[in-house]
Write a structure and sequence with these properties.
The complex is a heterotrimer of chains A (364), B (359) and C (588).
Chain A (H helix, E strand, L loop, with lengths): L3 E10 L2 E11 L4 E5 L6 H9 L6 E6 L2 E5 L4 E2 L7 E4 L11 H11 L4 H14 L15 H13 L5 E5 L7 H18 L2 E6 L2 H7 L2 E6 L2 E6 L1 H6 L4 H6 L4 E12 L5 E7 L2 E7 L8 E6 L5 E4 L7 E12 L3 E7 L4 E7 L9 E6 L4 E5 L1
Parallel strand pairs in A: 3-9, 3-10, 7-8, 8-9, 14-21
Antiparallel strand pairs in A: 1-2, 1-4, 4-5, 5-6, 10-11, 12-13, 12-15, 13-14, 15-21, 16-20, 17-18, 17-20, 18-19
Helix pairs in contact in A: 2-3, 2-4, 3-4
Chain B lengths: L3 H15 L3 H4 L16 H18 L1 E6 L5 H14 L2 E6 L2 H13 L7 E5 H11 L25 E13 L24 E4 L6 H12 L2 H8 L4 E3 L2 H9 L5 E6 L11 E4 L5 E10 L6 H11 L2 H10 L2 E2 L10 H7 L3 E3 L6 H11 L2
Helix pairs in contact in B: 1-3, 3-10, 7-8
Chain C lengths: L17 E2 L3 H7 L2 H31 L13 H6 L2 H34 L5 H7 L8 H12 L5 H10 L11 H25 L3 H9 L4 H12 L1 H17 L2 H7 L7 H10 L6 H26 L22 H27 L16 H7 L2 H34 L5 H13 L2 H13 L11 H26 L2 H9 L4 H12 L1 H17 L2 H6 L7 H10 L3 H30 L3
Classes of the chains: A alpha+beta (364), B alpha/beta (359), C mainly alpha (588).
Chain lengths: 364, 359, 588
C-alpha cells in the first residue's frame, strides 16, 4: 500500500476553478475522506488522483512516484497507476457475470487462469459474494453490486483504493452496515483509501481523517472527532449537523494549560466560558458553537454548568432516539437534543446549560 | 486458317482499287487503315497475318470490355475464340457510359488494361473524337468481306445490328387490329395503350424518334406524342409488363428478345418500314497490352463463326449469307430491313427536339 | 489529539517523490503525442476515403472536362444548375423525401417500441421478419409492386374490382404515392434496425420514474422515451431523409411513367442518357445538394450539444418490458399486418414467381425449377458470391471498426478535431451513389502509378468502407451516447488501456448496435452497384454486378432467386446474432 500526496493541486475548467491549490498527504494504510457539499471539488480531486482528470496545476504522487505533474507536462494514465476504484454508480459492466467483472483487472494484466480464479474467489469471499460468482451482474441488488464493485477494486491489490460516494445509492440501513463492513475490511487489509462523500455521518464513522472541502479548497483536515468538536471556522462548524452558533465578544483569553485557550465570552443576554484553538484578543467577535446534544434543559434558574441561557420552550419534537427541543432565548432560539424520555411543556420557562468543553469558539 | 486462299484474293482485289486514293482516305476510311501489306503479293499478306496470329498466341490472353451487358453470347463467342486460337478472353461488362468513363480514366492515368471494346457506332465516335482512346483499325482478312454499308468512317469493326420493332399483347390486340408499321402507331385507337421507351433520353425510344423523325417527319412524331404514351426506361421489365396486360403495345422493342419470351401472349412485329437499329462492333483501344490478340479477336468477330452465332439469335449480321438454314421467325428478324440509326453528331439537337415534342 | 492547522503539507513524504520512467516514457506519458498521432492517422484515412474522392468530384464540377482531359476551370456547371426547373425539382425531391421519412420514422419508432419494450407475442420472430424487404434489391421489390399495384392488371386492383365491382383501380403504384411507398419499403426496416437496440438498451426506471411522477403512458413515451432517444432519432431522421433525396430507383421505376422528376433522376440522366456524360453538371448539382444536406448535420449538432443521453448506467437494470395485457394482441396484429403488407405481398410474389417460367404467369405448365438450376450452375455467380462474401466480411468488419473509433472519439472524448472526423464520416452519405462511384473511379485511377489500388479488389474494399462509414458511425454514435462514462472509466482505472477498454467494454456493451451496423454494412456492400461497376476488375465481379447483368438480360426470375437467397442469408445472420445476444442478454 502506498501513500498519496497532493501538492498545490488545482483544476481549472476554462475560467472556473474547481479545485484550488489543494495540499494533502494520505499516509500508507490511512483512510481519508473528502467531505463537502456537492460542487466543492471533492470528486474532481478524487478523479485527478485516479487519472480520470488532468490537474491543471500542481503535482500528484502515489507512493514514491509522481503520477502527474502539471508544470512538467507529465501524466501517467489511469491504467498505469495501479488503483482500485469504486464508482458512485458501481459501474458494474452489465454484459459480464459477477466473476467476469471481478476478474477484469486480472485478465487485463494477463494473469494465469488459476491465479485469476483463486484471487477472484478470494476477493468475492472477502465481500461475502462468493456464492454469486456466476450470476449475471445486473441481476444483483444494490448492496450486492456495491460489494462486487469493492471486490473488483481490491482484487489485484491496488496501491490505493478510491471510492466515489459508494454508499449513496443504498438505503439508510444498508448504508450503515456496508460502511461498517467496509471499514473493518479496510483496517484488516491496511489499504490506503481515499473516500469521497457528502454524508458527514459516513465520513466520521469510516475515516482516520476527514478533509472538509468547500469551493474547491480544503477548509480543514483532521480526525473526525477533532473536526466535529473543534472546527477551525464557522463553515466547518456548520457543516456537521445543526449546531447552535452564537455570536459573542471575547472578554478574556488565557491558556488553559492544555493545547487550547480558555475564553470568557459575552453574548446577548448570556455570558460564560468556552474553548478556542488560538489566542483571541479581547473584544474580538467570535462564533461560539454548541452542539445540540451537549445542551441540557434544566428548570428555570437551575444553573449547573459553565454556560447557560434562560428562555422558554417553543417547540418539542419526538424523534424516536431523542427529542428535539427549541428554546427561545434572548440571544437566539437554541436547538437542544434531549433524551426522548424527558418531557417538556411548550411555553415553560427553562434554563439551557452546557459544559465548558462543549462550547467551541471560532473567529468570525 | 482454312479460308486462306480465298481471303488473299479478296485482299488483293481491294488493295488494287485503293492504291491510288489510299493516301487521301486513309484517315477517314478506318476499315482500310494502315496496312503495310497493301499492294504486296499474296504470300506476303499471308505471312503478315500469320505473324499476327503467332504474336497473338504468344500474348496468350485478351481483355475485352463490353457495353452489351448480360448477353450470354459474349461468353459463347469468347469460348469459341479461345478454342480457335488458344487465347483466353477476360470480359468486363458495364453499361455504355460507365465503361466509357472507365476506359477514358484508365488511359488518362496511364493504366492500359483493356484491348478491345465492344460498343456501338455512336459511342465509338465519342471514344475516337472526344476521348481519343481508340487506335485506327487494322486491316484483317475478314474486315474486307463485310457488307459495304458496315464499313465505317469511325474506327469500329462492325459486328452486328440490334433491330428494334413493335411488340403487342395478343390477348389485348386482335389479329385484325395489329399494327403493321410505325405509321400505325399513330392511330388514335391506341391512345393510352402504348408503353414506350423514353424518347427523351439516349436509348431505344430515342432511336425510334430519330429514325422516324428523319424518315416520316415531324408531324408523325407529334401525332404519336399525342397518344398519351407512358414512358419507361427498362426494356426487359417493360416487355413483361406488356405481356402481363398492362399495355397493348410496347415500342420499340429489341426484336431479338422474342426467343426469351416464348410462351407469353406477345407478338413481335417487324414494321413495314423496317427496323431502326444500333450497329455494334469492336474498337482497338490505345496501347492495348495484347495488340495482336486484339487484332485476331476483331477479325474473328467478323468471321462466319461469330456472324452465325449472332444471326442465329436474330441480330443482323454484317457478313452475307449467314442466315441460311435458320428457323423462319429468326431469319425474318435477322434479315429485317434496316430502317435507320442515330447520328451522334446531331445528338444534342435531336434530344432537345424530342424533349420539346414529348414534354 | 492534536489540532491540525491547514498548513501546506505539514506531514508530507519522508522521501521526496520522483518522476517515474525515463525521459522518453515521460514525453509520451500524457498520451497526448500518441493521441495526436492517432488522430492524424484517422484524419488521413478518412480524408483518403471521403475527402479525396470528393475533391476529385469538386474538380470535376469546376473544370470543363473530367480529370485527365485538357480543359479549363469555370463555373459553368454551377451556372447551369441554377434554373427554375431545377428549383422545382429540388422542392419536389425534398417533398418526396419528407413525405417518406416522417411516416417511416413514426412507424419504425412504433414498431421498435413494440418489439423492444412490450410483451407482444412472437416479437423475436417479428423483429427479424419485418426487416426483410430491406435486404432485397430494390429493383425486385419494384417489380413485385409493379405487378401488385399497377392500375390495369395489378393483383390488388383485380381483387378490388372483383370484390366491389368497381371499374376504377384502388391503387396506382405509378404515382407519387407509389414512389413514396416503395421508398418506405426500405426506410422503415432500416430505421427500425437502426433504433431497436437503442430502445432495448434503455433503463426502464427512467420511464418508470416518469410514470410515478404522474405522467401517462403516452406522455412518458413522448417526453421521456423519445427525448432520451434524441441522438438516435435525429441520426435516423437525417440518414433516412438524405437517403430519400438520393434514392432514384423508386423515382425511376414508378415516377418516370407519371412524369415525376427528382434530382437524382436528373443526375442519372446527365450521366447516362446524354450524348456525352455531363459530369460537370452532375457533380455541380450533387455538391449543391450536399451543401444543403450539411445544414442538416449542423442542425443535429446544435440540437444535441451539451445534453446527456446516457440510459445505460453502471447500476444495472432489469430490462423489463411493458405488460400490455390483452392489448398485446392488438400490437401483435399491427405487426402482423405490417408484415403481411410489406413483406408477404412483395416477397411472396418473388418467391412464387421464382418457381414459374415467367413472373405473373402462374399456370401449371409454367412450373419450373430452371431458374434455380440456372443460378446454381452459373460459375460466374459462385465466383461473385465468393468475392462478395470476402469483401463483405472484411469490409463490414473494417467499416464497423472504423465507425466505432470515429463515433467513440466524437461522442466520448473532448479531443480537438473530433467534430472534423465526425463531419468527414458524414460526407459519403451526402453524395448520390452514382456520382460518388465516379469519384472513387477518378480518385483511385488517378493515384500515382506505383499505388496499385485501381483494378484490384482493394479499390472495391476501400470504396465500400467509405460508403459504409456514415451508417457505422451513426449506429455506434447512437449506442455510445447511451453508455455512462463510469463503465469506461472504471475499466481504465482498473488497468485496461484505451484499446482494451474500447474492445472489452465499449464494443462489448454496444455489441447489439455493432452487430446491426455490421449487418447493414454487409448487405450494403452486397447491394452496392454504382461504385462496384466502375471499380471491379476482370475476375473480381461482385454479386451486384452479376445481378445487374442478369437483370439487363431479362432474367428477372434468376435475379429473384438470388434475391431470395440473400434474404435467407439475412435471416441466418440475424438469427445467429440475436440468439448470440440472447445468450448474453438472458443474463440481463
Amino acid at each position: 500500500m502506498a501513500s498519496v500526496t497532493l501538492e498545490n493541486v488545482s483544476r481549472m475548467y476554462g475560467a472556473v476553478t474547481a479545485v484550488d491549490n489543494v495540499n494533502l498527504k494520505i499516509k500508507s494504510g490511512e483512510f481519508v475522506t473528502l467531505l463537502g457539499p456537492s460542487g466543492c471539488g471533492k470528486t474532481t480531486t478524487l478523479r485527478m488522483v485516479a487519472g480520470l482528470e488532468k490537474n491543471t496545476g500542481g503535482r500528484i504522487s502515489i507512493g514514491d512516484n509522481v503520477v502527474s505533474d502539471a508544470d512538467k507536462g507529465y501524466f501517467v494514465p489511469s491504467e498505469r497507476r495501479r488503483l482500485g476504484m469504486v464508482f458512485q454508480s458501481y459501474a458494474i459492466w452489465p454484459h459480464m457475470t459477477v466473476f467476469d467483472n471481478v476478474a477484469y483487472p486480472l485478465r487485463i494484466r494477463r494473469r494465469p487462469d488459476t491465479e485469476i480464479r483463486d484471487r477472484v474467489m478470494n476477493a468475492l469471499r472477502l465481500v461475502e459474494m462468493d456464492q454469486y460468482a456466476e450470476r449475471p451482474s445486473p441481476a444483483l441488488s444494490g448492496g450486492q453490486q456495491q460489494r462486487v464493485a469493492i471486490a473488483r477494486a481490491l482484487v489485484f491489490e491496488p496501491e490505493v483504493l478510491l471510492l466515489d460516494e459508494p454508499l449513496s445509492n443504498l438505503d439508510a440501513r444498508l448504508r450503515t452496515q456496508m460502511g461498517d463492513d467496509f471499514r473493518a475490511l479496510q483496517q484488516r487489509l491496511k489499504i490506503t483509501a481515499l473516500y469521497v462523500t457528502h454524508d458527514q455521518a459516513e465520513a466520521m464513522a469510516l475515516s482516520d481523517r476527514v478533509v472538509v472541502m468547500h469551493g474547491g479548497r480544503i477548509l480543514q483536515v483532521g480526525a473526525p472527532e477533532e473536526i466535529y468538536r473543534r472546527p477551525e471556522n464557522r463553515q466547518v462548524a456548520a457543516f456537521f449537523g445543526t449546531p447552535n452558533l452564537l455570536n459573542a465578544t471575547v472578554k478574556d483569553c488565557r491558556p488553559n494549560g492544555g493545547q487550547y485557550y480558555k475564553l470568557s465570552v459575552e453574548g446577548q443576554g448570556w455570558a460564560g466560558d468556552c474553548h478556542a484553538a488560538t489566542e483571541m484578543p479581547k473584544g474580538a467577535d467570535v462564533t461560539v458553537m454548541v452542539r445540540p446534544e451537549n445542551l441540557h434543559v434544566r428548570n428555570a434558574g437551575e444553573v449547573n454548568g459553565d454556560l447557560s441561557w434562560s428562555g422558554e420552550v417553543s417547540q418539542a419534537i419526538f424523534r424516536g432516539s431523542h427529542r428535539s427541543i427549541m428554546v427561545k432565548t434572548p440571544a437566539q432560539t437554541l436547538h437542544v437534543e434531549a433524551s426522548s424520555l424527558s418531557h417538556v411543556d411548550i411555553g415553560r420557562p427553562v434554563t439551557v446549560a452546557a459544559p465548558v468543553e462543549a462550547a467551541w469558539a471560532v473567529r468570525n | 486458317m482454312t479460308t486462306n486462299t480465298s481471303m488473299t484474293s479478296v485482299i488483293q482485289k481491294t488493295s488494287a482499287i485503293q492504291t491510288w486514293s489510299r493516301r487521301f482516305f486513309m484517315a477517314a476510311v478506318g476499315s482500310l487503315a494502315i496496312s503495310a501489306a497493301a499492294g504486296m503479293p499474296a504470300f506476303a499478306q499471308d505471312a503478315e497475318w500469320q505473324k499476327v496470329i503467332d504474336a497473338g498466341k504468344k500474348e496468350g490472353s485478351l481483355v475485352l470490355y463490353t457495353a452489351l451487358v448480360g448477353q450470354p453470347s459474349t461468353k459463347q463467342i469468347a469460348e469459341a475464340f479461345t478454342k480457335q486460337y488458344g487465347i483466353s478472353v477476360e470480359v468486363l461488362e458495364a453499361r455504355a457510359s460507365e465503361i466509357r468513363e472507365r476506359v477514358r480514366v484508365e488511359q488518362a492515368a496511364g493504366r492500359f488494361a483493356a484491348d478491345v471494346m465492344f460498343t456501338s457506332e455512336g459511342q465509338t465516335m465519342l471514344y475516337d473524337k472526344e476521348d481519343k482512346s481508340v487506335d485506327p483499325l487494322p486491316v484483317t482478312p475478314n474486315s474486307q468481306k463485310i457488307g459495304d454499308k458496315f464499313k465505317l468512317k469511325v474506327p469500329m469493326a462492325s459486328v452486328m445490328t440490334i433491330p428494334y420493332g413493335i411488340m403487342i399483347n395478343t390477348g389485348l390486340v386482335k389479329p385484325a387490329d395489329e399494327p403493321k408499321s410505325w405509321k400505325d402507331i399513330a392511330d388514335p385507337k391506341w391512345q393510352g395503350k402504348i408503353l414506350s421507351d423514353d424518347p427523351r433520353a439516349i436509348g431505344a425510344g430515342y432511336l425510334w424518334f430519330f429514325s422516324t423523325y428523319d424518315k416520316i417527319g415531324e408531324d408523325y412524331v407529334k401525332k404519336v406524342a399525342s397518344q398519351k404514351l407512358v414512358f419507361t426506361r427498362d426494356q426487359r421489365e417493360s416487355q413483361r409488363r406488356t405481356a402481363r396486360g398492362e399495355y397493348s403495345i410496347y415500342m420499340p422493342v429489341i426484336m431479338t428478345d422474342f426467343s426469351d419470351l416464348k410462351g407469353l401472349p406477345v407478338k413481335f412485329i417487324i414494321p413495314e418500314e423496317g427496323v431502326p437499329y444500333v450497329l455494334y462492333g469492336n474498337v482497338m483501344l490505345k496501347k492495348a497490352p495484347h495488340p495482336n490478340a486484339a487484332k485476331l479477336y476483331l477479325d474473328f468477330m467478323q468471321g462466319p463463326v461469330v456472324q452465325k452465332i449472332y444471326a442465329g439469335l436474330g441480330y443482323g449480321p454484317v457478313l452475307g449469307g449467314m442466315t441460311e438454314g435458320l428457323p423462319a421467325d429468326v431469319k425474318a428478324i435477322s434479315e429485317a430491313k434496316l430502317y435507320g440509326t442515330t447520328d451522334t453528331t446531331r445528338q444534342n439537337e435531336m434530344l432537345a427536339k424530342s424533349k420539346d415534342i414529348f414534354k | 489529539m492534536t489540532i491540525i492547522h491547514n498548513r501546506p503539507l505539514d506531514d508530507i513524504a519522508e522521501t521526496a517523490p520522483t518522476l517515474g520512467g525515463n525521459a522518453f516514457t515521460r514525453a509520451f506519458s500524457g498520451g497526448s503525442l500518441w493521441r495526436l498521432i492517432g488522430m492524424l492517422v484517422l484524419i488521413l484515412l478518412l480524408g483518403f476515403l471521403t475527402i479525396y474522392p470528393l475533391a476529385m468530384l469538386l474538380y470535376g464540377s469546376l473544370h470543363s472536362t473530367p480529370p485527365g482531359m485538357a480543359g479549363e476551370f469555370n463555373l459553368n456547371g454551377y451556372r447551369s444548375i441554377m434554373t427554375t426547373q431545377n428549383l422545382i425539382v429540388l422542392a419536389n425531391t425534398v417533398g418526396i423525401s419528407l413525405a417518406k421519412t416522417i411516416p417511416s420514422l413514426t412507424i419504425a419508432v412504433f414498431l421498435a417500441w413494440i418489439v423492444a419494450r412490450t410483451d407482444t407475442p412472437f416479437r423475436g420472430a417479428l423483429e427479424v421478419l419485418i426487416t426483410l424487404p430491406f435486404f432485397i434489391p430494390p429493383i425486385l421489390t419494384a417489380m413485385a409492386w409493379g405487378m401488385l399495384a399497377n392500375p390495369q392488371v395489378g393483383v390488388i386492383n383485380m381483387v378490388w374490382r372483383w370484390a366491389t365491382g368497381a371499374t376504377d383501380p384502388l391503387v396506382n403504384i405509378y404515382s407519387y404515392g407509389g414512389v413514396i411507398w416503395h421508398m418506405c419499403q426500405y426506410s422503415i426496416p432500416f430505421l427500425f434496425l437502426f433504433m431497436v437496440d437503442a430502445f432495448r438498451a434503455m433503463d426502464p426506471s427512467l420511464e418508470e420514474s416518469s410514470r410515478m411522477c404522474g405522467a401517462s403512458r403516452w406522455t412518458t413515451f413522448r417526453k421521456i422515451t423519445l427525448l432520451l432517444m434524441l441522438p438516435v432519432l435525429t441520426s435516423s431522421f437525417m440518414l433516412s431523409f438524405i437517403k430519400g433525396i438520393e434514392t432514384f430507383e423508386s423515382a425511376l421505376f414508378f415516377g418516370l411513367p407519371a412524369g415525376i422528376k427528382v434530382i437524382t433522376t436528373d443526375i442519372y440522366e446527365s450521366i447516362n442518357h446524354r450524348a456525352t456524360p455531363d459530369y460537370q453538371y452532375a457533380t455541380s448539382l450533387s455538391f449543391a445538394i450536399m451543401g444543403l444536406m450539411f445544414l442538416l448535420v449542423i442542425w443535429q449538432w446544435w440540437m444535441l450539444r451539451g445534453k446527456s443521453f446516457q440510459t445505460v448506467t453502471g447500476k444495472g437494470f432489469r430490462p423489463s418490458v411493458m405488460e400490455l395485457g390483452p392489448w398485446r394482441w392488438v400490437t401483435f396484429a399491427i405487426c402482423l399486418m405490417f408484415f403481411f403488407i410489406t413483406v408477404v405481398l412483395p416477397i411472396g410474389q418473388l418467391m412464387l414467381g421464382s418457381f414459374f417460367r415467367f413472373f405473373g404467369f402462374y399456370t401449371y405448365d409454367m412450373l419450373t425449377l430452371e431458374h434455380y438450376r440456372a443460378v446454381f450452375a452459373n460459375s460466374e455467380f459462385w465466383r461473385a458470391v465468393r468475392n462478395t462474401m470476402m469483401l463483405g466480411l472484411l469490409g463490414a468488419t473494417a467499416t464497423m471498426a472504423l465507425g466505432a473509433i470515429v463515433a467513440y472519439i466524437s461522442v466520448r472524448t473532448r479531443w480537438r478535431g473530433r467534430s472534423l472526423i465526425d463531419g468527414m464520416a458524414w460526407l459519403p452519405w451526402m453524395m448520390p451513389g452514382m456520382v460518388l462511384g465516379v469519384g472513387f473511379l477518378w480518385a483511385f485511377a488517378m493515384l500515382p502509378g506505383p499505388i496499385p489500388i485501381y483494378g484490384t479488389v482493394w479499390a472495391l474494399l476501400l470504396a465500400y468502407i467509405a460508403l459504409g462509414t456514415p451508417v457505422s458511425v451513426r449506429v455506434m454514435t447512437g449506442a455510445y451516447h447511451q453508455l455512462s462514462y463510469d463503465l469506461e472509466e472504471c475499466s481504465r482505472v482498473h488497468g485496461a488501456s484505451w484499446f482494451q477498454t474500447m474492445w472489452r467494454i465499449m464494443v462489448a456493451l454496444a455489441w447489439p448496435a455493432f452487430a446491426v451496423g455490421w449487418v447493414l454494412t454487409f448487405f450494403g456492400i452486397m447491394r452496392e452497384l454504382s461504385a462496384s461497376i466502375l471499380l471491379y476488375s476482370v475476375g473480381s465481379e461482385t454479386l451486384a454486378v452479376v445481378l445487374m447483368k442478369l437483370w439487363a438480360n431479362g432474367n428477372a426470375e434468376q435475379v429473384s432467386v438470388i434475391g431470395l437467397m440473400m434474404m435467407l442469408l439475412v435471416i441466418v445472420f440475424r438469427w445467429v446474432q440475436l440468439s448470440f445476444i440472447k445468450s448474453r442478454i438472458s443474463k440481463l
